[in-house]
Amino acid sequence: MTRIAAPDDDDGSGSPPPSTPPTSAAVKRDAFPLVSPGKHSVSSSAYEGGGRYAPFPCTPPSVDSAKRSPLQWVPLDKHPFFSSTQSSGKSPRDSRRSGNLLTWDATSSLLYAWDPVARCVLRLSLRFGDADPRSSPSSSPSSAVLEAAIPPEVLMSDIQMESVVDQISLNVDGSLLLVVGSDSLRVMYLSKKTSPTDQRSCRTASVASQIFSGKNSGLQTLQASWHPYSRSHLAVLSSDSVFRLFDLSSDVEQPEQEYYLQPAEPVRCKKAASFCPVAFSFGGQHLWDTFSIFIVFSDGSVYILCPVVPFGSICRRTHIEEIYEDINMFGLNSSDLKAVSNSRLAIDWLEATFPELADQSAEGGSTLVSTAHPYAPINASLSLQGPLTKVYLHEGNNKSELKSIAGGEGRVIDFLYRSIGKDSILVIAWSSGQLQIDALADEVQPQWNVGPSPRLHLDSYGHIKGVAMICDTSSEEIPMPKFCPPGSNTSMADRANLGHPPPLLRLAIVDLALSKNVLESCLLSLFPDPLLDQTFYCLHGGGIDLIALQFLPFTNLIPDTDMIGKPPSVYPILNTCSTESCSSVLFGFVAIADLYGHSLILSLSTSYEFIVLEVKAWNELLHLHYDNDKRSAVDVEASLPEVISKDLLTGPKAIAIPSSTTLRSLTGDSIEGRSTLHHYIKLFRENYVEYAHKVYVELKEHAGYLQTFLNDQNKRLREAKQSILNIEAKEADIRNRIDRSFKVYELLDQRLQNFRNLPATNKKPLSRAEREFKAELDRFADVELDALHSAIQALNARLKRFYQSSSPASVTPRSRKNVSNTQLSQIKSSLEMLSLLNKENSKKVKLIEHELKSHEK
């Protein structure tokens, strides 16, 4: 696990180091470039000759000049509407609430903004214009100014909106605008046709008013998003743990699909309120990810619903055929019975949802897209796959191990899914200011629970109009999945669906190092970058941070190598907290692409002031950490950066001029002379003119890269010199410690010699048998020896009394009794035994005393 803190500006100048992307203080009322484009600049437009980029058309909607006055174009950050709103001094919105009141229509170049004061939608026509050197001398030639049309168009709703608006968003084609309120969902039907006046009324409809009526039901809308593969489907996640999919083209009140989520509640959650869904995200264009819904819960656990597709949506035919071939090739060949059952259900679902797959008479490639038909299995419901196991790849002893790992701190507040090459990246934002970045370590596969039947809503013709089902986690105990690390030689057949969800491979935990005041002022929000898939933005109470992923486990990995990628980088690009208290909070964010392949960030502050930032591509050298012991000379040479192209160093190709004497006889006005002249001019252009053009482009476009390379080398040199100085400064201390260690060693050696000179050092130590015998003697000396002495004394006293009583002098004739022979023999035998016992005891006592005396000597 990697923990990263946001970098600080050490020198206070605000200028970033050469090897980092743009970081700059917030500059309002002026669009500015952060760094000049370098070798790694990215553009979404076509590249033309001469080092220029061909701009893509960016035109506003058509305006009838006879009905309306000509439009005036001003920079967006200097638009008079926002200046007047700011000067009014009204607080349009509570800054503690999180949301986004901006949305962007890229196809029509229209920007939509919600006006909390007038409670209407503002539509601005935008265009990109060249920067004026007189107004902004610091602007580079490759900078574009974002201009807005005056006057703007005001879109009023035909119904009254009383609730506080938190978010607005457009559907795929920009015809519907979703307005998410605190207790309501509204949809405005937009029209691209301009009206004679600057204000127009739009038809507005309430979505699921019977379900999300805030005063009665008590349900809260956790997230509402348009489905990326349909223009009329809206997905809503509510606080009752139900995921609903509405088709606004047919019914705005009843959902088309309902999925009641029943996850396995963790043991550590003592209350039901502590474990609830927070956000969801749609999958990307990667096999079954297209039909997957990723849902994150408050404790950070991630679940998957697959497959889910809007009825009537349009999907690419080639993508569906790829999924169909994959599930037939690998799914049915699995050794797991549950995997085979899921594969058969998946094949039935594909053939029923897209009937073109089962129609063998249909010509392959005749249609480019396929329409999804309503379908749901009668005897099975979707399985809520999860929670996904969070693991990381531990490298040690040349083996890869899987170990469980914890998530962030606090509770989950936002969620983002990104499909980058071969990787599926999941980003989770925590209330503690941490970003948890994981990657799917395996393919997503559809799963069903056979048994519980879904509830189907049919029309009069028997066609499916709606589906509702309970999605429960699998009751079977699923073992830890076998993880195949990237670059391994494991076959795809071994990676087939084994009946369990894919694990999450931990990439990093990014700590934004935000203060408590910043975290309390506004919740974290995640936004993707429109150009670079490996970058995304984090909006918080302190401003905007850019997070760049430097390494992807499956996309950037080179097979048979032990490369460890660089951790993600955090770059603060906007700071709104000049003091400890954050007075200005951003509640609007849009990232768009300009003419030159750079990203423009549009933000709206609580004072209703626009902030325009131009984030250009940075020429950062992406480093990889290698295993130095296993690198060969060829690898070292290949890892060195290329300063200039080798094709340019070799020079232009030599023109082979034939040694012919007939050239002098040719004239310029003849046909042969013109043909020969044209031929040599063509050769000269192909070799020398194009080579000169390549040299010009190389020197012009790579100047920033070369400067960055030199700065990076100088930085490494300074770090090496500083390390040498630190070692030299510690050398004296190390020598003193070594001297003290030698003195302590000499002292210990002297003490050891003193111990060896003691008198008892030459005495041979007792063996184990001798130590046991000594312990037995000590026991005799303490206990049994005293008992033997007392027994001997008692026997001697009894013997004396017996002799005294049996003597003839002491017995009178009157008292003499006759004793039988048997009694006399018994008494004699007893005396003999006592005498023998007395002798033996005496011998033992003497032996013990002798041993004690010898031991004492």
Structure, explained:
The chain is α+β, with helices and mostly antiparallel strands. The chain has 3 domains: 3-313 and 372-625, Methylamine Dehydrogenase, Chain H, CATH 2.130.10; 314-371; 770-803 and 825-856, no CATH class. 25% of the residues lie in helices and 26% in strands. The protein has 10 helices and 40 strands. The strands form 10 sheets. Strands 1, 23, 24, 25, 26, 27 and 31 form a 7-stranded mixed β-sheet that branches. A hairpin with a 6-residue loop joins β13 and β14 (233-238). α2 (317-331) packs antiparallel against α3 (337-353) and α9 runs antiparallel to α10. The longest helix is centred in the C-terminal third of the chain and has 54 residues, at 703-756. The protein is elongated and about 165 Å long. Residues 1-66, 87-92, 395-404, 487-497 and 619-639 have low confidence and may be disordered.
Summarize the structure.
The protein has about 850 residues and is an alpha+beta fold.
Would you state the CATH class of the largest domain? Mainly Beta
Distance between the termini: 69 Å
Beta-strand share of residues: 25-35%
Mean pLDDT: 75
Give the helix/strand class.
alpha+beta
Q: What's the structural domain tally? A: 3
CATH architecture of the largest domain: 7 Propeller
Radius of gyration: 44 Å
Any idea what the CATH superfamily of the largest domain is called?
A: YVTN repeat-like/Quinoprotein amine dehydrogenase
CATH topology label of the largest domain: Methylamine Dehydrogenase, Chain H
The best one-word shape is elongated
Got a strand count?
Answer: 40
